[in-house]
Amino acid sequence: MYVVMAARALEGKVALVTGGSRGIGRAIAERLARDGAAVAVAYARDEVAASETVARIRKDGGRAFAVRAELGRHGDAARLWAAFDAEGGEYAPGGRLDIIVNNAGIGRSSSLASLTEEEFDEVFAVNVRAPFFIVQQGLTRLRDGGRIINISSGAARLAMPEIIAYSSTKGALDTFTLNLAKELGPRGITVNSVAPGIVDTDVNASWLRGDPEAEAHAASLAALGRVGQPEDIADVVAFLASDDARWVTGRVIDATGGAGL
């Protein structure tokens, strides 16, 4: 009896996931690796978490390497790609890749009245400028037929004045997605945004975990009646990264569980 093993959806592909050491980014990196991609796990400072993510992927038989580059400062994209080349020779010959996932981001919960110029500059530098120049400088590396997936937020379509700067960055990222899709379409490269809602990650742990009332309230905001998990987002990203999504581009995929319906 012969057993025919199905080919994995991303076999032979190379992916970069920014903010890949923890939370949603880790779940995305692990899922893409399970689907066959060699994954560059980009991180800013937490080397331990990045090493853990790489180790988890390798333990499951996947391929991964860590790339350190702190985003939000001028020259960050160039430093990221230099680190990609330095660490990824075995996995990404010639520095070529197939999938870019712009997941790294920071939040600012200040209102319009209290937001400082420094906070404004920082959140836009990490959430908008960094993805812009990562893509700009990565286009010669990205193979035709590739994928760019930007992690946006459901906050971009909801009025939430208490996080006005953060929401604005995600709206800008969605506009970036739309324009990139048009520009890169002739190369067969698809570009899409994924917009999560409230997700149970370390970022939300301080107010969400261990507080039944907070968790119940967060769950009530979604039509599906629960708080999102990192894997919920990773699975959507995996679909967009695969050939199954070859005819989807320039879209914002809502992954909020139906928040605000």
Mean pLDDT across all amino acids: 94
CATH architecture: 3-Layer(aba) Sandwich
User: Any idea how many domains?
Assistant: 1
Number of helices: 8
Please identify the oligomeric state. single chain
**Would you report the number of β strands?**
7
- Strands of the biggest beta sheet: in what spatial order? 3-2-1-4-5-6-7
Q: What is the CA–CA distance across the termini?
A: 51 Å
Q: Outline, from the CA principal axes?
A: globular
CATH level 1 name: Alpha Beta
- Rg, alpha carbons: 18 Å
SSE-based structural type: alpha/beta
Percent in strands? 15-25%
- Specify the CATH homologous superfamily: NAD(P)-binding Rossmann-like Domain
Helix content: 40-55%
Largest sheet: 7 strands, parallel
Spell out the helices and strands N to C. EHEHEHEHEHEHHHE
Kindly describe this structure.
Strands 3-2-1-4-5-6-7 form a 7-stranded parallel beta sheet, with helices on both faces. The radius of gyration is 18 Å and the shape is globular. The chain is α/β, with parallel strands linked by helices and 261 residues long. It has helices spanning 23-34, 47-59, 76-87, 117-138, 164-184, 205-208, 212-220, 230-241; strands at 14-17, 38-43, 63-68, 97-102, 142-151, 190-196, 252-255. It has one domain (14-204, 229-254): NAD(P)-binding Rossmann-like Domain (Rossmann fold, 3-Layer(aba) Sandwich), CATH 3.40.50.720. The N and C termini lie far apart (51 Å).
